[in-house]
Design a protein that fits this description.
Number of helices: 5
Strand content: under 5%
Distance between the termini: 82 Å
Radius of gyration: 34 Å
Order of helices and strands: HHHHH
Largest sheet: none
Number of strands: 0
Helix content: 55-70%
Length: 129
């Protein structure tokens, strides 16, 4: 018993017919019927190795998202380049790590007072950053 169903005949445009015959030839299929069955199988993702197709609108949306992401990456790269530390060129830049060490030692000496004045310590720490 044949489980295949017949589909009523359909009229298609000349350009669609040309595309269908081209598909048939490219995939070396015996008939237009088999080309239609393969195309429908792929479209509805019924085959084991079915390809997924995107609409033009989905591709356009994806292209817009890629463009926005590319712009964001370029901006982030520029910000990173502007904020990357360079070799010390002035005496104040060379003393900054020493200042931080001095602050760290002061904080460790006053460890008992941390619970009493957390806002002031945090403020002093942020001020020297």
């Amino acid at each position: 018993m044949n489980s295949n169903k017949k589909v009523p005949s359909v009229s298609i445009s000349d350009s669609l017919y040309q595309s269908l015959t081209t598909y048939q030839k490219q995939h070396q299929l015996d008939s237009l019927d088999s080309a239609v069955v393969e195309i429908l199988t792929q479209f509805f993702q019924l085959g084991k190795e079915a390809k997924r197709y995107a609409t033009v609108e989905q591709l356009d949306t994806l292209a817009e998202k890629v463009d926005r992401l590319s712009q964001q990456v370029a901006k982030l790269s520029q910000v990173k380049a502007n904020n990357t530390p360079t070799a010390p060129s002035s005496p104040t830049q060379t003393t900054k790590p020493t200042q931080q060490s001095a602050i760290a030692s002061e904080v460790s000496k006053d460890w008992k007072d941390i619970d009493d004045e957390p806002d002031e310590i945090l403020h002093d720490f942020l001020e020297y950053q």
